[in-house]
Every structure is written in C-alpha cells, then in structure tokens.
Design goal:
Helix content of chain A: 25-40%
Strand content of chain A: 25-35%
Number of domains of chain A: 4
CATH topology of chain C: MetI-like fold
InterPro entries (chain C): BP-dependent_transpt_permease, MetI-like, MetI-like_sf
Main location (chain C): membrane
Radius of gyration of chain A: 26 Å
CATH class of the largest domain in chain A: Alpha Beta
Shape of chain C: elongated
Mean pLDDT of chain A: 90
Structural class of chain C: mainly alpha
Membrane topology (chain C): Multi-pass membrane protein
CATH architecture of the largest domain in chain A: 3-Layer(aba) Sandwich
Low-confidence stretches of chain C: 266-271
Family (chain C): Belongs to the binding-protein-dependent transport system permease family.
Number of strands of chain C: 0
Distance between the termini of chain C: 12 Å
Oligomer: heterotrimer
Largest interface: B-C, 51 and 39 residues
Organism (chain C): Ruegeria profundi
C-alpha cells in the first residue's frame, strides 16, 4: 500500500494554472524524486501536500496520506498532521530558522505543539534528534542560536525539527541547493540514513539530476505543471520515453568542444597576492584580527587560454575576482595584465580596465532596470578614450546582439522583457562590446536552468572560436568547469591547492581537497546509449 | 553583551558632549548681554561688572563652557538671570510635570498600538484590518494640540469629567496627579499610537512573509500561534526604533500640549525664559531635553540586544 | 491607480488650489476687521464664519494654507537638497570615516526635535516663519539622509553597480546615474510624507508662537486664538483643525497611493 498517493492534482493560483492533473505515489521507506526546471510546479506539488499554498490557490483532485484526503481536511486537522505525520525541509537554511529563538526551543516546538510529550521528555528527544542529525550535544547544546551555526548545520537543525516526531512522510524541497558539494553529500547521506532507519517515505524535490539519479528509488519528471514521465530510477534512466526527459539529462551533462589554444604567451600575471579583511575586535582593547581571504596566490593566464577557478563558498574566489578586476586593492603582491599593473598608486589603472570585463551570476541583478538594452550594453564604452558615437555605436551594439544570438531590434527594449537566459546573453554582449583581452565569468551559468545553461555554454564555445576569447571561469560547479576550461585551479581557504590541465586534474586529482570535492559531487550515470 | 553595552555607552557620552558644545555655541552666538538686559539701559558700569561676575559671565568662553558642563554634572545648572534662583530647582519642579506626562503618554500609546497593530496584521485585508487602518490614517493626520482642545471641549467643558486645565500636584496623591494628566496624555498618545500601530502592523506583515514562518507552519503551528510565537518578537526590532523616536516627539509635544492645559511644565518655563531672554534657562532646558532623547535611544539600543541574540554575541 | 491615490491627489490639490488662488482672490480681505459681525457661525456670507475681530475665516484659511504649504515645502526642500547628497555620499563611502561622520551627525540631529531647534533659534533670532522653516528643514535632513543611504546601500550590493564599476565609472557618476534614479520613487513617497509632517509641525510651532507672526494668518495661530473661545464659538477651533486634517490626510493618502503605484513589484503583480 502506498503511503502517499497524489491523484489528478490540479492547482491554480489567482486563476493561473500551476499544476495539471499530477499523479504520483510514495511507499513507506521509498525515496521519490520530483525533478524539472524552474516553473515546472515541483515545489508547488510539495506545498500542496502540506496544504501551505499561497493565498488565492484553488486545488482539485486528491492527496491521500494513508487513505486520508488532505485536500478535504480542515485547517486545524491539517495542523495536527503537519510536523507529526508529515515533516518538511526547505531550500534556504540561512532563513528557515527563527533568528531570535535558540535551536533547542525550535526543535522542541515540533514536539510540544502536538502535545506529544512532557517538557522534559521533549527536551531529551530534542537532544537525541539533534545528535542523530550530526549535531552532538557537547558541541551544539540546545541553547545555540541559528546565527552561531553554518548553513549545513542549520539545515541539520531544520531536518531535526522535521523528524523529531518520526513522521511517516518527509518532504524535502531542494534541501541541498544552497549548500556546498561536500556539505551536500553529507546532508544527502543523512537523509538516506533517516529513511532507512525510520522507514519514512521521502518526497524529494530537486532540479539536480545527478542528485536525483544518486538518491531516488523513483523519479518523477515535471514540466509546466505536468508530469511528463515517471518510473523506477533504473528503468527510467535506461529507457527514457519522453523527449523532454532525454533533453534534460542530455543538457545536464552537456559537453562543448573548445577550439585549440594558441602558443602560450602570458596575459594575466598574479603574483603573491594577499587580500586580508579586518575582523571585528573580540574585546574592547584587543588588537583586531585579520582574515586572509586570499592568501599568497600566484598564477598566470595565457592569451587565448580558458582557465577555471573552482572552490566552495568562502574560499576566496570572489575576493580574488574583485582584486583582478581592480575593484579592491590588495595588501601585497601584484596583478598585471599585459605587463601593466591593475592598480597603480592606490588608483585602478584605466588602461588595464579597458582590457577586461566581467559577467556576473545573477541575470536579474546585473542590469539597471531603468535603462534600455542599448545603453546597458554600451556602458563599457565609458572606458574608451574616444567612445564610438552615432551609427558606429549602433552598429557595434547590433553586432554584439547578433553575436550572442539576439536580434538588433532588442536594443530598444527594457531588461524586464527578457528571460534569465537572454539576460545572461546580454551580459555577455556587454562584456564583449569593447573587445577586451580578458573576460571573467563569475558563476555566470550557476543561476540558470540546465537547458538554458547548455545553450549558454554552446554560445561561449562559439564565441571562443569567433573572437578567440581568453577567460577566467569562476564556478563551484565542477561539471561545467570540466567542459568549458583548458586548465583549472582549485582554491581552498584562500590558497590555490592544485592547478593543472583540466582533464588531468579531474581524472587524477593530487591534492586531498580536490579529491574530496570530486568524490562529493554527485555524478550523472552513463546513459549515453539511450540518449541519442 | 558587555562589549555591546560599553560601545553604546561610549557613543552615548560622545553624543552628549557634542550636543552640549552645539547648544552652548548656538546660545553664545545670541546677541546681547544678559546683564545689561536685566539691569536695563541705564545701569551703572560697575553694577554691570558685578552682575556679570555673579552670573559667571566674566570668564573666557571656553572656561564658561567647562564651568557649565561641570556644574551640570553635579546638578548645578547655574542661576536664572531673571529670577536669580537656581535653574536646577526651577527645572526640577517643572520636570515633575513634563516627564510623567511623556511617560504616561508613551505607556498609553504602546498599550493601544500593540494590540491594534497585531490585530490588524492578523486580519490582513479583512474588515477588522481596514477599520484599524482607517482609524490610524485619521490618527496620524490629527494635530495633537487640536485634539487636546476637542478633548477639553467634550470631556471638561461639556461632560465635566476632568478639569479643563491646570495641574493638581502630586502632593494630593498619585491618583489626583494622574487624573489631571489624563486628558493631556490621551491627546499626546493617540496620534503617536496611530503611527506605532501602523509600524507594528507592517513590520509583522514583513515577518509573516519570512521563511521561518513557513518552517513553523510546517511543524504544525497554526497561523495565529505562529504570529505570536515567532512573529511578534521579531517584529519588535523596528517597532523599538519608533518607540525611541516617539519619546522625543512626546517630550517635545508635551511642551505644546502644556499650553492647551495650562500645565506648569518645562514648556511654560522655556517660553517665559525666551521672552525674558533668560538664556541660561533656555540652554539648560534644551540640554535636558536632548539628554533625555539621547538616553532613551541608548536604552532602546539595549532593548534591541535583549530581543535579538545576534546583537548579544556579535561584538 | 488606487482609490488612495485618487482621493489623496484630490484632497491635496484642493488645498494647493486654495493656497494658489489666495494670491489673486479671497472672498474678503483677510485682515479687514468687522467687529459688529464678530464670532458669526458659518453662513452664506461667511462660509466658515468670522473670528473674534469679525475677520472672514474662509479667507484666513486660504491664506493659512499658503503659509503652511510654503513653510512645509521649503523645509522638505532643505531636507532633500542636503539630505539626499549626504545619504548618497555615505552609501558610496560605506564603512569609511566619511560615512561614520555623516551617520553620527544624523544621530545627533535626531536628538534635537524640531520644536527644540525652533526654541533655540527663537531664543537667538526672535520668532518668525523663517524659524519654522529652518527648524523643520534641519530635522528633515537626517530623515532623507538616512532613507537615501539605506536604499542606496542595498543597491550598491547589486551586480549592475559592480558592472558599472568595472566599466570604469566612479562613485559620483554611479550615484547619479544608477543609484539616484532607482531610489527616486522612494524619495518621492517619503517627500510626500515629510510634507504632511511639515504641515503638522508648522501648525504646532505657530500654535506656541514660534511660527509665522501676526498679521500673517496661520492655522496654528488661529487655533491658539480660538482656545479661550472654544466653549461658545467652537467653529473657530473646528475649522482650522479640519483644514489641517484634510491637508495631512490628503498628503498621506497620496504618499501611500504613490508608493503602491510606483512600486514596480506591485505593478507587475497587478498587470
């Protein structure tokens, strides 16, 4: 018998159709992964089970939890089920906990709100589950506050809250998307262990197909609010029926071919760079301590070379990016482009700035919403001594738009008229418009859906051929770096711990940290035979 | 926590110091010699010199500033130019009216605003919310002294529940004193309560959209329980800021309201002093008001730390 | 457009029109005494009645609107012209001594309620409408500085500002080109709110005699004059009070309406 059975679930919010006749079921002890790109309705499916839908939601169909239709239950009755029979874990651990209450109170709340135990028993149970999720009491007493914990630790607290009453069903909505790969691997292990130990059903929502393939007993693929394909993991992976499923898996492991590199000839030289931040003083009269975000980093980037920089959050890669761009001055060492220093006499060197540009991660925050595309793309002209004007300027903008696969007519539009992928194309056009010698891609494809990401990667490979680009590609995503770079550097705690030809580093990592990174990253299974 | 308190305390002292310099400098710019003003145009030069010495006006300005500040530290605010009595005594008498009035109004305003704001947030978009919001829209548009006049007209002149003005004094018992401050306190409190209720509501609504509220709901906490258990305390952080700001409005506002009710408070003292060019009194009253505002803001900073554990542990 | 916006715009423009019209025409000469007809209740001849000198209240309210609006407008102008650049500068130089000085200066000014500033100024210069303008204006500076800085700081974190910096643009240029246009809506809304607070503050100051001096009519002083006569001529107090309430409420509704109308998030949601 199934634990959860969703039948013909349809949902509309303010009469916009979100879900269309969704069917899926979960047996006790089973892990079912719901996957799809943004807008597929996968998170709304989870919220519909919890009956935590936004205002204006209208549902039809049925959501049966052991023969009880959740859609027809009253709100007070739902409250007795939430947390007790169904637990839920959310995506963003940094904001999922109440900042003004300690973790003990928050875990105990699950127990006490259902009047399941006395206060002292609840406290003992809270200690027990926190220890079970990997937060032992000697280091993480109940009196800890959320801000004293890291993202991964906070996610463990959220999991502890969700399982404190041993629910039959656990729902996890992108539980590891906000976490680093090594933390992700630990949290996924924890979830698998809990399912096995308690015999829970786990409904896991994730966009990451490698995670899906790694975790799930059953896969449900969604698109535009509909289930396009579902089945047992091994069956589905080896026999994909729907073209969308095939496209999705293919795009996830998308490979591009880069043109050959020219003869090595150094362009960017980074020598012994140190960037420190002053930490807040601990005591009133203590000498302030310093944090070395970038610790004695040296490397060179050759003309025409595509170099990758990988590392987990907080490793110093963003700080290094800012230093190279001349946005922050470094405390020691030097950064030279084409032999000229990025900073000269405490001032950024304009002659150097002219030779590089950048593409950022967030397609929504990278543009001034009040300017038209033409003005957005033309912004780097500010760096030139004689910026092009009139028709010359228009031609350059049109050329750039065409180069990134957009139409010259788009120049008169505002940025909100474009999708995330199109915006990232515009960002690339902006970076290319002054034909810089070096482009920095700072997590430039990390916020995109897999199919869009594949298209942008194709575009980059194409631009490498036409404009012989030199770039530094900064990312936490190992699979992307592997295909889009010639050489790669691995950064940990401000230091570059390994550097080498990309294929070499990925195939035979030497440094233990690189090894742990590569081992932790979930990989897509070999499915090439059936994905033609 | 200790470090946080110390840091706030240092910033409190610096603010007080700068404020005292500003006030002293502004008053010093004032044209005219208090001594000749007091004695009239026909005063003899030697009596003027004697009076200046008596008032402490015969020393250099820097010296006078330090005399003024060091005097205030031990409770000596100097001697009134016009009344020739210690300013500290004059202020102390008036403070017993103005300060209780401001605190009374603050208490009323908070007592009205908190339930109103929470009620409106809990019933967002429903008739209860719209009624509260409409009332606060009116409340923030009403000038408090006009509202005071209307209260006098209704409750003192027509219904005769209260006296139209004057202060009964504390010596006749706490109740008598409070009774004569009730209408002024209501007049001060209601418009401020309207602002505070709106801040409370919008701050709560912001919190209701936070991720951790959804987490709480996923634990089986009902909407209303979540509002009380997780919402109110988080919403207090911006509300406290407004309460701190309101105290300065209430203290200054009480100066205006005193005029409506003929209360012998700081307001009357300062207006008399202005017309008599009794600058030492003006200077001291202003310093006292500023001192009160800065101190209340210091207390608000401490209250933040009590509410928010992030402030307690971070530096 | 919301009901708030329309109602607010209507009420505000009504008062503004009355003030503008008063430059050319009032039903009576506001200063003309007519003792025999003193303390008349509202009638066909005198829409708002007459005061204790027999002056026409309607004419006085019109001129009073002029005084109120002039004082509040100039005061908000002072607050904006000084406060916004300070806020932009503090945000552009976040964490430096300049930011620290500006913000501490703000805190200091916040410790001086506008009434206290007015008292100080009057103690030196004597009473007058200019005092009210300066006092309310000074108090507005930190309000605008703080709100500008707060909004600008979150913008400075955005990637389009980083992109502009990479394009070689300096802090001043970025502030003018990218920051200011994106905080303008917020400032317009806040400006409306401060305008209404300015009307209230002006009324309070002139009520205690620190504002416009006789014979210039002002709503606050009309109320002060009315105080002793409330029991037998309540219209003397009711009418100026209602004038203040209508103006302030109109401006507040306008501010709320503008905020909803200008907020692109809400507009997109509605579209």
């Amino acid at each position: 018998m199934s634990l959860l059975r969703i039948e013909n679930l349809s949902l509309s919010i303010h009469s916009v159709e979100i879900l269309k006749r969704v069917n899926l079921s979960i047996a006790p002890g089973q892990i079912v992964a719901v996957t799809g790109e943004s807008g597929s309705g996968k998170s709304m499916t989870a919220l519909a089970v919890m009956q935590l839908l936004p205002n204006g939601a209208q549902v039809s169909g049925s959501v049966l939890l052991e023969d009880q239709n959740l859609l027809t239950l009253s709100e007070p009755k739902m409250c007795t089920l939430r947390g007790a029979s169904v637990g839920m874990v959310f995506q963003e651990p940094m904001t999922a906990l109440n900042p003004v209450k300690n973790i003990g109170d928050q875990v105990m709340e699950t127990i006490l709100i259902h009047k399941a135990m006395s206060r002292s028993q609840a406290q003992a149970r809270a200690q027990e589950v926190l220890t079970r999720v990997g937060l032992p009491q000697d280091r993480f007493p109940l009196s800890r506050y959320p801000h004293e914990l890291s993202g991964g630790q906070r996610q463990r607290v959220v999991i502890a809250m969700a399982i404190a009453l041993r629910p039959k069903l656990l729902i996890a909505d992108e539980p590891t998307t906000a976490l680093d790969v090594t933390t992700q691997a630990q949290i996924l292990d924890l979830l698998k262990g809990l399912v096995r130990e308690f015999g829970m059903g786990l409904l896991m929502i994730t966009h990451d197909l490698a995670v899906v393939a790694d975790m799930a007993d059953k896969i449900v693929v969604m698109r535009h609010g509909e289930v396009v394909e579902s089945g047992a993991t091994t069956d589905l992976l080896h026999n994909m029926q729907h073209p969308y499923t095939r496209m999705l898996f293919k795009a996830s492991g998308h490979q591009v071919t880069l043109p050959e590199r020219p003869q090595p000839q150094p362009l960017l030289e980074v020598r012994n760079v140190i960037r420190t931040y002053r930490l807040p003083r601990k005591g009133l009269f203590d000498i302030p301590e310093h944090h070395r975000a970038v610790d004695n980093v040296s490397f060179a980037l050759n003309r025409g070379e595509r170099l990758g920089l990988v590392g987990e959050s907080g490793c110093g890669k963003s700080t290094l990016t800012k230093a190279i761009l001349g946005l922050d001055e470094v405390q020691a060492g030097e950064i030279r482009l084409d032999g000229q220093a990025v900073f000269s006499g405490h001032k950024p060197n304009l002659a150097v700035r002219r030779k590089m540009h950048v593409v950022f991660q967030d397609p929504y925050g990278s543009f001034n919403p009040r300017h038209r595309v033409a003005r957005l793309i033309a912004e780097p002209f500010h760096l030139l001594e004689t910026p092009p004007t009139g028709s010359e300027r228009q031609d350059r903008i049109a050329e750039m738009l065409r180069a990134v696969g957009l139409s010259p007519d788009d120049a008169d539009k505002y940025i909100h008229e474009f999708s995330g992928g199109q915006r990232q194309r515009i960002a690339i056009a902006r970076a290319l418009v002054i034909q810089p010698e070096l482009i920095l891609f700072d997590e430039a494809v990390s916020a995109l859906d897999v199919s869009v990401r594949a298209q942008i990667l194709d575009l980059l490979a194409e631009l490498c051929a036409t404009y012989s680009l030199t770039y530094l590609f900064i990312s936490h995503d190992l699979s992307v770096v592997r295909t889009i770079t010639d050489r790669v550097m691995v950064m940990q705690a401000g230091k570059i711990v390994e550097e080498g030809e990309t294929e070499q580093v990925f195939a035979q990592p030497k440094h233990p940290y690189t090894q742990s990174l590569i081992n932790a990253a979930p990989t897509l299974p070999e499915i090439s035979d059936n994905v033609a | 926590m200790l470090r946080y308190t110390l840091k706030r305390l240092i910033s409190l002292l610096i603010s007080l110091m700068v404020a005292s310099v500003v006030i002293f400098m502004v008053i010093e710019v004032a044209p005219g010699d208090p001594a000749s003003f007091m004695l009239g145009v026909n005063a003899q030069e030697d009596t003027l010199v004697a009076l200046r010495a008596e008032l402490g006006l015969d020393v250099p300005k820097v010296q006078r500033y330090f005399n003024w500040v060091s005097g205030m530290l031990v409770g000596d605010f100097g001697t009134s130019y016009t009344y020739r009595t210690p300013v500290s005594q004059m202020i102390a008498d008036r403070l017993w009216v103005s300060l209780p009035l401001a605190l009374y109004a603050l208490a009323l305003s908070t007592l009205i605003a908190f339930p109103a704001g929470i009620y409106a947030a809990a019933r967002r978009g429903k008739p209860g919310d719209l009624t509260v919001m409409g009332a606060t829209q009116l409340g923030i548009a009403v000038p408090n002294f006009w509202f005071a006049m209307m209260l006098v007209l209704i409750f003192a002149i027509n219904l005769r529940w209260f006296n139209a003005g004057g202060f009964a004094g504390w010596e006749n018992g706490l109740w008598t004193g409070l009774h004569s401050l009730t209408l002024p306190a209501i007049a001060l409190a209601l418009p401020q309560a309207a602002i505070l209720a709106r801040v409370m509501r919008s701050s709560l609504l912001d919190i209701l959209g936070e991720d951790f509220m959804r987490t709480a709901r996923a634990k089986g906490v009902s909407r209303r329980q979540a509002l009380w258990r997780h919402g109110v305390r988080n919403a207090l952080i911006p509300v406290l800021t407004i309460i701190g700001l309101q105290f300065s409005f209430l203290l200054a506002g009480s100066i205006i309201i005193e005029k409506v009710f003929y209360l012998p408070g700081l307001g009357r003292l300062v207006f008399q002093a202005i017309s008599a060019r009794d600058l030492i009194v003006v200077e001291s009253v202003v310093m006292l008001l500023v001192f009160a505002v800065i101190t209340v803001n210091f207390l608000v900073d401490l209250a933040y730390a009590a509410v928010d554990p992030r402030l307690r542990s971070r530096t | 457009m919301s009901r708030n916006l329309i109602l607010g715009a209507l009420l505000s423009s009504l008062v503004l029109l009355a003030a503008l019209l008063s430059f050319f025409w009032t039903p009576y000469d506001y200063a003309a005494l007519d003792i025999p007809n003193k303390l008349q209740p509202p009638s066909i001849q005198h829409w708002f009645g007459t005061d204790h000198f027999g002056r026409d209240m309607f004419s006085m309210i019109m001129i009073g609107a002029r005084t109120s609006i002039a004082v509040a407008l100039v005061a908000v102008g002072i607050g904006m012209t000084l406060g916004i650049p300070l806020g932009l500068m503090a945000a552009a130089r976040k964490g430096t001594w300049l930011d620290e000085v500006i913000m501490r200066g703000n805190d200091l000014v916040f410790a001086f309620p506008s009434l206290v500033i007015a008292i100080l100024i009057t103690a030196i210069l004597g009473a007058g409408a200019i005092n009210a303008i300066i006092a309310i204006g000074i108090f507005n500076i930190p309000v605008f500085a703080r709100i500008t800085r707060g909004a600008a700081l979150s913008l400075w974190e955005r990637e389009f500002i980083l992109a502009a910096r990479v394009s070689g643009k300096g802090a001043a240029r970025i502030s003018a080109e990218h920051i200011l246009p994106n905080v303008a809506n917020l400032l317009i809304v806040q400006g409306t709110i401060q305008f209404s607070l300015g009307i209230l503050a002006e009324a309070g100051l002139s009520y205690v005699g620190l504002g416009a001096q006789p014979p210039t009519p002002s709503w606050g002083r009309m109320l002060a004059d009315a105080q002793t006569m409330v029991s037998f001529a309540p219209h003397l107090a009711l009418i100026p009070g209602l004038a203040i309430i209508v103006t302030v409420m109109g401006l507040n509704l306008l501010g709320d309406g503008l905020r909803d109308w200008l907020d692109p998030r809400i507009r997109v949601a509605r579209a």
